[in-house]
Amino acid sequence: MAIKVLVTGGKGGTGKTFVATNLAYLAARKGIATLLVDADVENPNTWISLGASKPRRIATVYSYRPSIDESRCSLCGKCVEVCPAHALALIPGKRVLLIDTLCEGCMLCMYVCPQRAVNQLMSEVGWISVTRHGPLDVLVGELRPGERHEDLVVEKLLEYLANAEQGKELIVIDSPAGTRLVYKLAKRSDRYVCVVEPTPLSLNGMKRLMRFIDPRKTVGVVNKVGMAPEMERAIRTLFQELSIPWIEIPFSQR
Ligand code: SF4
Ligand code: SF4
Prior knowledge:
One of its GO terms (molecular function) is oxidoreductase activity. This protein is of the alpha/beta class. The chain has 8 helices and 11 strands.
């Protein structure tokens, strides 16, 4: 059974991709059968950092979208009332308007429509891809630009991970930015690497992460040390209070 290490940061731009990529590649170079999982689906660029060839798509992630047949619609407004995402608006006497970017694909509107005026369409929201760099296999989740269904792409990525982890000893997961989806990945992980930079936003992100990540299974990385000594002291104090061992990476403009 492979050990899963989630590399996370509580916010974007802390350097977690740099840490995840290096950790995975060094482990693979040492002969440990390693899989790097790029779950930063809005900006999956581990393969670029590695210099690997462009990932090959192996699956498409779909979401359901409603399509309203105006010839059947009686403008009763029931679909608008039930929509949990406020993605539908009734223009009185004219039509029902779908705000595509808000739709969550739950299809409640279809179930409540008394006229059977709502049809179900499939819409492509992302992809799962694979690539390889030397001894390191890479599994990538990618959200279609402009889409907001990161959760669907991460779900699909986890499905594929179940197969891809066969024969591996170590799985390194580069988590999405922020904390919303990290919870889902944290539940499936055995160890955590928490990468922070010396900014108030990053420190707050780390505090949020610590609400659902076990500090006893966590290693800290303070990145860009030398930029803001006061913030660095605050981060060290927090790591000390939580008994989290940490390493520091000095700031470099190169
Ligand atoms: S599919 Fe769900 S979220 Fe989308 S418009 Fe219908 S009810 Fe609203
Ligand atoms: S529930 Fe059906 S009939 Fe009523 S407004 Fe919506 S689409 Fe039209």
